[in-house]
Specification:
There is one protein chain. Helix content is 26%, strand content 26%. It has helices at residues 30-37, 100-104, 123-131, 151-158, 174-196, and strands at 16-24, 43-48, 67-80, 83-89, 109-114, 136-141, 166-169. β5 (109-114), α3 (123-131) and β6 (136-141) form a beta-alpha-beta unit. The longest helix has 23 residues, at 174-196. The N and C termini lie far apart (45 Å).
Length: 201
């Protein structure tokens, strides 16, 4: 457990640790996002794409991608002295989805990373978190050369609930990613508070 002393003479602060998932399609930027924001050297489980995997690894639109995550990415970021996020990036290909249930255990919320050039690739992640009632935000990774659309257009294309936040981001930029993660925490806390409210008759 991590303990910090905020000021001389004060008792150590034991931070609350929260687990956040980062999901989305193959090559959407999950590994980049975790690496950009992590204050520790991120754990990566990347392997080179092989000829054997070519029939099942759709590299259209990501022709420059030569590696793939086969288990998870892991990083950590301290938002405040008393709040630490553990960030887990999920594998993107269908054949590794069996790992998602393990990674999702205990998660406060999630980021579904989207690429407007291949928006359909994040449908599976949206469905996964909706079915399990895990709060999530959609982060539209603004790739160079990709068309830019208003958040409402992305929401409509993904058929999202009006309460699901849609934010534009750059997975390479620490501050941009940090703001997305803060959005996940805020959204998850609001969802938890709403669930505790008694139903009105």
């Amino acid at each position: 457990m991590i303990f910090k002393r905020s000021e001389r003479g004060k008792a150590p602060v034991e931070p609350v640790t929260l687990k956040i998932l980062v999901a989305g399609g193959f090559g959407v930027g999950k590994t980049t996002l975790v690496g950009a924001v992590s204050e520790i050297k991120p754990l990566r489980t990347e392997e080179l794409l092989s000829e054997a995997g070519r029939p099942v690894d759709d590299t259209s639109g990501v022709s420059g991608k030569h590696t793939t995550t086969v288990a998870m990415d892991f990083g950590r970021i301290t938002l405040r002295e008393d709040l630490v996020l553990y960030v887990f990036g999920t594998p993107g290909q269908d054949r590794f989805w069996f790992l998602w249930d393990e990674l999702a255990t205990g998660a406060l919320g999630a980021v579904v990373l989207a690429d407007t050039r291949r928006l359909e690739d994040c449908f599976a992640a949206v469905d996964y978190f909706e079915r399990r009632s895990i709060p999530f935000v959609v982060g539209v990774n603004c790739f160079e050369g990709a068309s830019r659309y208003p958040a409402d257009a992305v929401r409509q294309a993904l058929d999202l609930d009006p309460a699901v936040p849609v934010v534009m981001c750059d997975a390479r930029e620490r501050q941009s990613v940090k703001e997305v993660l803060i959005g996940v925490v805020q959204h998850a806390m609001a969802a938890a508070a709403a669930a505790r409210e008694p139903a009105t008759t």
